[in-house]
UniProtKB/TrEMBL annotation:
Family to which this protein belongs: Belongs to the HisA/HisF family.
Pfam families: His_biosynth (PF00977)
Intracellular or extracellular location(s): Cytoplasm
Coiled coil stretches, renumbered: none
Lineage: Bacteria, Pseudomonadati, Pseudomonadota, Gammaproteobacteria, Lysobacterales
Pathway membership: Amino-acid biosynthesis; L-histidine biosynthesis; L-histidine from 5-phospho-alpha-D-ribose 1-diphosphate: step 4/9
Listed EC numbers: 5.3.1.16
Organism: Cognatiluteimonas sedimenti
Enzyme class at the top of the EC tree: isomerase
Active-site residues (renumbered): 10, 132
Protein name stated in the entry: 1-(5-phosphoribosyl)-5-[(5-phosphoribosylamino)methylideneamino] imidazole-4-carboxamide isomerase
Length: 244
Protein backbone atom coordinates (compact mmCIF):
# COMPACT_ATOMS: atom_id res chain seq x y z
CA UNK A 1 0.00 0.00 0.00
CA UNK A 2 1.27 3.45 -0.88
CA UNK A 3 2.00 5.97 1.86
CA UNK A 4 1.22 9.64 1.26
CA UNK A 5 2.72 12.62 3.06
CA UNK A 6 0.43 15.61 3.61
CA UNK A 7 2.33 18.79 4.53
CA UNK A 8 -0.12 20.82 6.60
CA UNK A 9 -0.87 24.52 6.43
CA UNK A 10 -3.19 25.68 9.20
CA UNK A 11 -4.39 29.23 8.61
CA UNK A 12 -5.77 31.65 11.18
CA UNK A 13 -6.23 35.36 10.49
CA UNK A 14 -4.30 34.87 7.27
CA UNK A 15 -1.23 33.46 9.04
CA UNK A 16 0.31 30.01 9.10
CA UNK A 17 -0.03 28.78 12.69
CA UNK A 18 -0.09 25.66 14.84
CA UNK A 19 -2.21 25.09 17.93
CA UNK A 20 -1.16 23.03 20.91
CA UNK A 21 -3.73 20.31 21.65
CA UNK A 22 -6.37 22.23 19.74
CA UNK A 23 -6.19 25.22 22.08
CA UNK A 24 -6.88 28.47 20.22
CA UNK A 25 -5.17 30.30 23.07
CA UNK A 26 -1.93 28.32 22.54
CA UNK A 27 -0.95 29.41 19.05
CA UNK A 28 2.48 29.52 17.45
CA UNK A 29 2.86 31.66 14.34
CA UNK A 30 5.17 30.62 11.52
CA UNK A 31 4.55 33.14 8.76
CA UNK A 32 2.17 35.50 7.01
CA UNK A 33 2.22 34.00 3.50
CA UNK A 34 0.50 30.60 3.29
CA UNK A 35 0.97 30.48 -0.48
CA UNK A 36 4.74 30.71 -0.08
CA UNK A 37 4.67 27.67 2.22
CA UNK A 38 2.66 25.73 -0.35
CA UNK A 39 5.09 26.66 -3.11
CA UNK A 40 8.04 25.42 -1.04
CA UNK A 41 6.28 22.12 -0.35
CA UNK A 42 5.61 21.66 -4.05
CA UNK A 43 9.22 22.46 -4.90
CA UNK A 44 10.33 19.82 -2.40
CA UNK A 45 8.35 17.26 -4.36
CA UNK A 46 5.07 17.01 -2.44
CA UNK A 47 2.02 15.96 -4.40
CA UNK A 48 -0.55 16.66 -1.66
CA UNK A 49 -1.27 19.49 0.77
CA UNK A 50 -3.49 19.53 3.86
CA UNK A 51 -5.02 23.01 4.18
CA UNK A 52 -7.08 23.95 7.25
CA UNK A 53 -9.19 27.06 7.86
CA UNK A 54 -8.94 27.34 11.65
CA UNK A 55 -11.21 30.39 11.83
CA UNK A 56 -13.96 28.53 10.02
CA UNK A 57 -13.43 25.35 12.04
CA UNK A 58 -14.74 27.23 15.06
CA UNK A 59 -17.17 29.71 13.50
CA UNK A 60 -18.21 28.03 10.24
CA UNK A 61 -18.03 29.46 6.74
CA UNK A 62 -14.87 28.47 4.85
CA UNK A 63 -12.81 31.62 4.15
CA UNK A 64 -9.82 30.33 2.16
CA UNK A 65 -11.28 30.00 -1.34
CA UNK A 66 -8.93 32.65 -2.84
CA UNK A 67 -5.94 30.95 -1.21
CA UNK A 68 -7.10 27.52 -2.38
CA UNK A 69 -7.47 28.83 -5.92
CA UNK A 70 -3.98 30.37 -5.82
CA UNK A 71 -2.37 27.20 -4.45
CA UNK A 72 -3.92 25.03 -7.13
CA UNK A 73 -2.98 27.51 -9.86
CA UNK A 74 0.62 28.12 -8.74
CA UNK A 75 1.72 24.75 -7.39
CA UNK A 76 -0.21 21.92 -9.01
CA UNK A 77 -0.60 20.34 -5.57
CA UNK A 78 -3.62 18.18 -4.85
CA UNK A 79 -5.26 19.90 -1.91
CA UNK A 80 -7.19 18.25 0.88
CA UNK A 81 -8.92 21.07 2.71
CA UNK A 82 -11.60 21.86 5.25
CA UNK A 83 -12.73 23.90 8.19
CA UNK A 84 -16.28 25.07 8.62
CA UNK A 85 -17.78 22.75 5.99
CA UNK A 86 -21.45 22.64 6.91
CA UNK A 87 -23.46 22.05 3.74
CA UNK A 88 -23.56 20.31 0.37
CA UNK A 89 -23.02 23.73 -1.18
CA UNK A 90 -19.81 24.15 0.81
CA UNK A 91 -18.48 20.85 -0.52
CA UNK A 92 -19.45 21.73 -4.09
CA UNK A 93 -17.78 25.15 -3.83
CA UNK A 94 -14.50 23.72 -2.58
CA UNK A 95 -14.41 21.06 -5.27
CA UNK A 96 -15.24 23.66 -7.91
CA UNK A 97 -12.37 25.81 -6.60
CA UNK A 98 -9.95 22.96 -7.21
CA UNK A 99 -9.88 20.96 -3.99
CA UNK A 100 -9.09 17.30 -4.57
CA UNK A 101 -10.76 16.29 -1.31
CA UNK A 102 -12.96 18.11 1.16
CA UNK A 103 -12.37 17.49 4.85
CA UNK A 104 -15.49 17.21 7.00
CA UNK A 105 -15.06 17.36 10.77
CA UNK A 106 -17.74 18.40 13.24
CA UNK A 107 -20.59 17.71 10.84
CA UNK A 108 -19.33 14.16 10.34
CA UNK A 109 -19.89 13.65 14.07
CA UNK A 110 -23.23 15.43 14.30
CA UNK A 111 -24.80 14.33 11.02
CA UNK A 112 -23.22 11.12 9.66
CA UNK A 113 -26.24 10.48 7.44
CA UNK A 114 -25.61 13.80 5.69
CA UNK A 115 -21.99 12.87 5.04
CA UNK A 116 -23.14 9.49 3.71
CA UNK A 117 -25.22 11.39 1.14
CA UNK A 118 -22.17 13.44 0.15
CA UNK A 119 -20.10 10.30 -0.31
CA UNK A 120 -22.74 9.03 -2.72
CA UNK A 121 -23.14 12.36 -4.52
CA UNK A 122 -19.54 13.55 -4.86
CA UNK A 123 -17.69 10.23 -4.77
CA UNK A 124 -15.96 8.39 -1.96
CA UNK A 125 -12.54 9.62 -3.04
CA UNK A 126 -13.56 13.29 -2.72
CA UNK A 127 -14.42 13.30 0.98
CA UNK A 128 -12.10 12.93 3.98
CA UNK A 129 -13.71 12.55 7.38
CA UNK A 130 -11.61 14.07 10.17
CA UNK A 131 -12.29 12.66 13.62
CA UNK A 132 -10.38 14.39 16.40
CA UNK A 133 -10.34 12.16 19.46
CA UNK A 134 -9.47 12.55 23.11
CA UNK A 135 -9.33 9.63 25.55
CA UNK A 136 -11.27 10.16 28.76
CA UNK A 137 -10.41 8.90 32.24
CA UNK A 138 -12.26 5.64 31.55
CA UNK A 139 -10.24 5.00 28.39
CA UNK A 140 -13.09 5.80 26.00
CA UNK A 141 -12.24 7.80 22.90
CA UNK A 142 -14.44 10.90 22.81
CA UNK A 143 -14.88 13.39 19.97
CA UNK A 144 -14.32 17.11 20.53
CA UNK A 145 -16.17 19.20 17.92
CA UNK A 146 -16.68 22.87 16.94
CA UNK A 147 -12.98 23.65 16.88
CA UNK A 148 -12.49 21.32 19.86
CA UNK A 149 -14.68 23.47 22.11
CA UNK A 150 -17.40 20.82 22.79
CA UNK A 151 -17.56 17.02 23.14
CA UNK A 152 -19.97 14.82 21.20
CA UNK A 153 -22.19 12.24 22.88
CA UNK A 154 -21.18 9.34 20.59
CA UNK A 155 -17.75 7.73 20.85
CA UNK A 156 -15.09 7.56 18.16
CA UNK A 157 -15.85 3.93 17.39
CA UNK A 158 -19.61 4.51 17.19
CA UNK A 159 -19.25 7.37 14.73
CA UNK A 160 -16.55 5.66 12.70
CA UNK A 161 -18.60 2.47 12.34
CA UNK A 162 -21.44 4.46 10.78
CA UNK A 163 -19.13 6.10 8.26
CA UNK A 164 -17.43 2.84 7.39
CA UNK A 165 -20.83 1.29 6.71
CA UNK A 166 -21.61 4.22 4.40
CA UNK A 167 -18.51 3.51 2.31
CA UNK A 168 -16.02 6.00 3.70
CA UNK A 169 -12.50 5.56 2.29
CA UNK A 170 -10.40 8.42 3.68
CA UNK A 171 -10.14 8.95 7.43
CA UNK A 172 -7.94 11.50 9.16
CA UNK A 173 -7.75 10.76 12.87
CA UNK A 174 -6.03 13.03 15.37
CA UNK A 175 -5.24 12.23 18.98
CA UNK A 176 -5.85 15.71 20.38
CA UNK A 177 -3.51 15.12 23.33
CA UNK A 178 -0.61 14.68 20.91
CA UNK A 179 -1.48 17.40 18.39
CA UNK A 180 1.30 19.95 18.15
CA UNK A 181 3.19 18.32 21.02
CA UNK A 182 5.89 16.38 19.13
CA UNK A 183 5.17 13.42 21.40
CA UNK A 184 4.93 10.80 18.66
CA UNK A 185 1.77 9.54 16.94
CA UNK A 186 -0.63 7.28 18.81
CA UNK A 187 0.36 4.06 17.07
CA UNK A 188 -1.87 1.89 19.25
CA UNK A 189 -4.91 3.90 18.21
CA UNK A 190 -4.04 3.75 14.52
CA UNK A 191 -3.26 0.05 14.65
CA UNK A 192 -6.64 -0.61 16.23
CA UNK A 193 -8.51 1.50 13.68
CA UNK A 194 -6.75 -0.14 10.74
CA UNK A 195 -7.39 -3.63 12.08
CA UNK A 196 -11.08 -3.00 12.75
CA UNK A 197 -11.70 -1.16 9.48
CA UNK A 198 -9.35 -2.57 6.83
CA UNK A 199 -11.24 -0.80 4.07
CA UNK A 200 -10.23 2.64 5.37
CA UNK A 201 -7.17 4.60 4.30
CA UNK A 202 -6.16 6.14 7.62
CA UNK A 203 -4.07 9.30 7.81
CA UNK A 204 -2.00 9.66 10.98
CA UNK A 205 -2.22 13.14 12.42
CA UNK A 206 -0.80 14.60 15.62
CA UNK A 207 2.58 14.08 17.23
CA UNK A 208 4.75 13.08 14.27
CA UNK A 209 8.33 14.05 15.17
CA UNK A 210 10.72 12.43 12.73
CA UNK A 211 11.31 9.83 10.03
CA UNK A 212 11.02 6.99 12.55
CA UNK A 213 7.46 8.11 13.36
CA UNK A 214 6.58 8.05 9.67
CA UNK A 215 7.90 4.52 9.28
CA UNK A 216 6.07 3.43 12.44
CA UNK A 217 2.80 4.95 11.21
CA UNK A 218 3.09 3.02 7.98
CA UNK A 219 3.87 -0.19 9.84
CA UNK A 220 0.77 0.38 12.01
CA UNK A 221 -1.33 0.27 8.85
CA UNK A 222 -1.77 3.96 8.02
CA UNK A 223 -1.86 5.03 4.38
CA UNK A 224 -0.42 8.48 5.05
CA UNK A 225 0.58 11.08 7.61
CA UNK A 226 -0.07 14.78 8.10
CA UNK A 227 3.09 16.78 8.77
CA UNK A 228 2.61 19.86 10.92
CA UNK A 229 4.94 21.27 13.54
CA UNK A 230 7.82 18.88 12.82
CA UNK A 231 7.92 20.09 9.23
CA UNK A 232 7.50 23.76 10.10
CA UNK A 233 10.36 23.61 12.60
CA UNK A 234 12.72 21.67 10.36
CA UNK A 235 12.68 18.43 12.33
CA UNK A 236 11.64 16.61 9.18
CA UNK A 237 13.12 17.42 5.77
CA UNK A 238 10.23 17.04 3.34
CA UNK A 239 12.39 16.21 0.35
CA UNK A 240 14.17 13.46 2.31
CA UNK A 241 10.92 12.10 3.71
CA UNK A 242 9.34 11.92 0.25
CA UNK A 243 12.40 10.15 -1.11
CA UNK A 244 12.06 7.47 1.55
Amino acid sequence: MSFTLYPAIDVRDGRVVRLRQGDYGAETRYGDDPLAFAVRHAQAGASWLHLVDLDAARAGGYTLLPLLDAIVAHTGLQVQTGGGVRSREDVAALLAAGAARVVVGSLAVREPDTVAQWLARFGRDRITVALDARQDAAGTWRLPVHGWTRVADETLEEVLARHADAGLVHLLCTDVARDGMLAGPNLELYRRLCERHPGLRVQASGGVRDMADLHASRTAGCSGAVLGRALLEGRIDLREALAC
